[in-house]
Every structure is written in structure tokens, then in C-alpha cells.
């Protein structure tokens, strides 16, 4: 089902070797800054697009140490 254009993007974070993804923020545009993230720890981030049909498939993840 086609839900039309993307309405927002959910940013998710996973720390270290954890299996659970945690919501880290929401963006209405392609560029955003997510503040208040843990520092000194290895984290993976990914994005999930949301439209009228619901959530899409998660993007590939990116590893970072902040």
C-alpha cells in the first residue's frame, strides 16, 4: 500500500551490543540534530520513514561514539 510522501522520520538508537532500538528523536526534514545522546559509548543510529500507511523499513545503521 502506498501511503504517499514521507511525513516524518523517526531516529532510533541502539547502544553497544543491545538488541533493542530506542527512539532518539523525530525529524520533519532530511537534516536534523539529535541532542541529549549518551557520550563515550558506542551507539548505532538508524532512521525509519513514516507516512499515512505507517512506518517503512529501517535504514541501514551507522555506528558512532559521541
TrEMBL record:
It comes from the Bacteria. InterPro entries: FN3_dom, FN3_sf, Ig-like_fold. Residues 1-66 form the Fibronectin type-III domain. PROSITE patterns: FN3 (PS50853). This is Fibronectin type-III domain-containing protein.
Amino acid at each position: 500500500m502506498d501511503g504517499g510522501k514521507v511525513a516524518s522520520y523517526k531516529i532510533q538508537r541502539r547502544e553497544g551490543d543491545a538488541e533493542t532500538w530506542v527512539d532518539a528523536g523525530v525529524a520533519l526534514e532530511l537534516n536534523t540534530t539529535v541532542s541529549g545522546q549518551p557520550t563515550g559509548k558506542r551507539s548505532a543510529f538508524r532512521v525509519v520513514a513514516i507516512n499515512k500507511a505507517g512506518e517503512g523499513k529501517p535504514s541501514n545503521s551507522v555506528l558512532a561514539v559521541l
